[in-house]
Write a structure and sequence with these properties.
One of its GO terms (biological process) is protein folding in endoplasmic reticulum. GO terms for molecular function: misfolded protein binding; protein-folding chaperone binding. It is found in: Endoplasmic reticulum lumen. Keywords: Endoplasmic reticulum, Repeat, Signal, TPR repeat. The chain is an all-alpha fold and about 450 residues long. Among the domains are: about 1-205, Tetratricopeptide repeat domain (Serine Threonine Protein Phosphatase 5, Tetratricopeptide repeat, Alpha Horseshoe); about 350-460, DnaJ domain (Helix Hairpins), CATH 1.10.287. It is about 70% helix and about 0% strand. It has helices at about 1-5, 10-20, 25-40, 45-55, 60-75, 75-90, 95-120, 120-135, 140-150, 155-170, 175-185, 190-205, 210-230, 235-250, 255-270, 275-285, 295-305, 310-320, 325-345, 350, 360-375, 380-405, 405-410, 420-425, and strands at about 445, 455. The chain has a two-stranded parallel ribbon with strand order 1-2. It is elongated. The protein starts with a helix and ends with a strand.
Length: about 450
């Protein structure tokens, strides 16, 4: 028994089988081998050995009791009752009587469960099936029926757990592996679906139904891998192309659509497609998981690009509540708060009529157009000229900040590089120290394109 005590079950089984081969009627060896089979999760083999023991030695009550216990766990209730009655005749104690009563109770619970099941009352059916399964742990048909109840109630993960129990209790589980794979797929979990459908094909590589579904799952899994790869390489448009492929292929699977929107949310945001990013992120947060931190952050960044700083602050605050120790989220929240504060002051993008994802070429184009429009010499009315002078300075300042990578980065992070208050101790920029406007020319600016206005230069290219 040393091998058994040490958990060396296959070796112990071989040892007992060798003894039985020499002495087939050795009931003790058969009984011990049955014990090993039970430990190995082979109840049918254990019952065969226990039956041989009982035939050889009918008064070996421990074997009868052991077999009754196996029958009970397999939900073979009539056989369990017969064995427990035999035990009770010999022992006449309360424990054996309780086991007989338990069998009767389980029969009653299963009658109730079946009635509720037939009447589509799956919640009550689950309640009575669970009471029975507590004692009948090796009864695949009970797990299967409860799994169906869970599925009907929309508790898919619980259904998967019970169906997987069935696969462990039956030898040919192709139908169940296919079912479990489809449930994982329904939840959008292509990886787990792939694992389960491969188990079906291990049992029979020629199973047509499993192979067809395998190809379907494999296609989605490959698309997901490609999307992950493009995100890793920051190829946002390629990422979006693959998400479109998933959307087209999985029109009927809402969960896969929503899971894919987690990707399109991020890739649209990174590509500067703010409206699409906000739309997709919002769909995920509304219909899949309102507390998805990554999606909250992605939507916050999309809101920033869309200059909706208040909404960005709200999303970052929620993300921070969910993940307080994430430094990146803390920094994002601070940035959004600075941008919100900044938006109530001077906004260089708005001055030039640009979005925050504008390129340098966009800045220069807008600058040229607005500088010509608002040149003070274009205005004769004194009030209009003063307004133009202010606009002209703001336009020049916007161009300076947004074409200088360092200053632009400061501004994009919520700090105005030309504002003394933002620079904490740094010297104020000349633009904010005031200009002197002389008659016959504005501040002496030279545009470098044929128009001369003194010593200062505004280049247009």
């Amino acid at each position: 028994m040393t091998l058994l005590a040490n958990g060396q079950l296959p070796e112990a089984a071989q040892k007992f089988q060798a003894a039985i081969d020499i002495e087939p009627n050795n009931y003790q060896a058969l009984y011990r081998q049955a014990t090993v089979y039970l430990a190995m999760g082979r109840p049918d083999a254990a019952v065969d050995d226990l039956t041989k023991v009982i035939n050889l030695k009918p008064d070996f009550i421990s074997a009868v009791n052991q077999r009754g216990g196996v029958y009970l766990k397999q939900c073979k209730l009539e056989k369990a009752r017969e064995d427990y009655k035999t035990v009770h005749k010999h022992e006449k104690n309360s424990e054996s009587k309780q086991k007989i009563d338990l069998v009767t109770n389980i029969e009653t619970w299963l009658e109730y469960a079946n009635d509720y099941f037939e009447n589509n009352d799956y919640s009550n059916a689950v309640s009575y099936l669970s009471k029975a399964i507590e004692h009948c742990q090796w009864a695949p048909h009970l797990y299967k029926k409860r799994a169906v109840c869970y599925e009907e109630n929309g508790e898919i993960q619980k259904a998967i757990t019970d169906f997987r129990a069935v696969t462990k209790l039956t030898s040919d589980s192709r139908e169940i592996f296919l079912k479990v794979s489809k449930l994982h797929y329904l939840l959008g979990d292509a990886g787990s679906a792939l694992i389960q459908i491969r188990e079906c094909l291990k049992l029979d590589p020629d199973d047509k139904e499993c192979f067809v579904f395998f190809k379907k799952v494999k296609k989605l899994d490959k698309l997901r891998e490609q999307i992950d790869k493009f995100i890793e390489k920051k190829k946002w448009m390629e990422c979006l192309e693959k998400t479109v492929e998933v959307f087209k292929a999985e029109k009927e699977n809402e969960r896969i659509q929503l899971d894919t929107m987690r990707y399109s949310c991020k890739c649209n945001m990174k590509a500067g497609h703010t409206a699409e990013a906000i739309r997709d992120c919002s769909e995920v947060l509304k219909n899949l998981n309102a507390d998805d931190v990554e999606v909250l952050v992605d939507r916050a960044e999309a809101y920033i690009l869309d200059e909706n700083y208040e909404a960005a602050v709200n999303d970052y605050k929620r993300a921070h509540e969910l993940d307080e120790n994430n430094n990146s989220i803390s920094e994002g929240l601070q940035k959004a708060q600075r941008l919100l504060k900044q938006s109530k002051k001077k906004d260089y993008y708005k001055i030039l009529g640009l979005k925050r994802n504008a390129k340098k070429s966009d800045v220069m184009k807008a600058y040229r157009k607005l500088a010509r429009k608002w040149h003070p010499d274009n205005f004769q009315n004194e009030e209009e000229k003063k307004k133009a002078e202010k606009m002209f300075i703001d336009i020049a300042a916007a161009k300076e900040v947004l074409t200088d990578p360092e200053k632009k980065a400061q501004f994009d992070n919520g700090q105005d590089p030309l504002d003394p208050e933002s620079q904490q101790g740094s010297h104020a920029h000349p633009f904010h120290q005031g200009f002197h406007f002389h008659q016959g020319g504005f501040g002496g600016f030279d545009f470098g394109d044929g128009g001369s206005f003194g010593g200062f230069k505004f280049t247009f290219g």
